[in-house]
Amino acid sequence: MTHSPVPAFLVELEEAFNRAMVSNDVEQIARCITDDWILVTPEAGPVPRERILGVIASGVLTHATMTKTATHACVAGDMAWVTGRGQNTGTFNGEPIQADEYVTDIYRRVDGQWRCMLTHLTPVRGR
Questions:
Q1: pLDDT at residue 1, as a whole number
Q2: Which of 87, 89, 95, 123 has its CA 20 to 30 A from that of 68?
Q3: pLDDT at 66
Q4: Residue 71 is part of which domain span?
Q5: 3-state SS track over 53-115
Q6: Is residue 118 in some structural domain?
Q7: Is the dihedral angle over the CA atoms 6, 9, 12, 18 positive or is it negative?
Q8: What domain count does the chain have?
Q9: Helix (H, G, I), strand (E, B) or coil at 33
Q10: In angstroms, what CA-CA distances link 116 with 18, 22, 59, 86?
Q11: The domain spanning residue 96 has which CATH number?
């Protein structure tokens, strides 16, 4: 199976989303996501936008670093998805956290701007 390169605009969207998350600024994060964005985690399943933004705004969840290396993508009209491997560090309830995950972000073009509508996380397991 061969893969075409990930479109540059999707790499840029992922990098902007990473910067927003590391800023821990809910207004910056909100500009990257749709009003109905969902985060799917292995620990909690589907988590709505309001809940994630609330724990970030309260300081319960912070991110210090976040990187993603996009490896697969597809653009179909006003929809696009990108999958890759991501790592992040931060705190949750004052305790250090660290993750190494496969990340899939689904984007939708809304009023001419691409915004993430779903993020799905899958932990990387030892081989």
A1: 43
A2: 95
A3: 97
A4: 8-123
A5: HHHHHCCCEEEEEEEEEEEEEEEECCEEEEEEEEEEEEEECCEEEEEEEEEEEEEEEECCEEE
A6: yes
A7: negative
A8: 1
A9: strand
A10: 12, 16, 22, 16
A11: 3.10.450.50
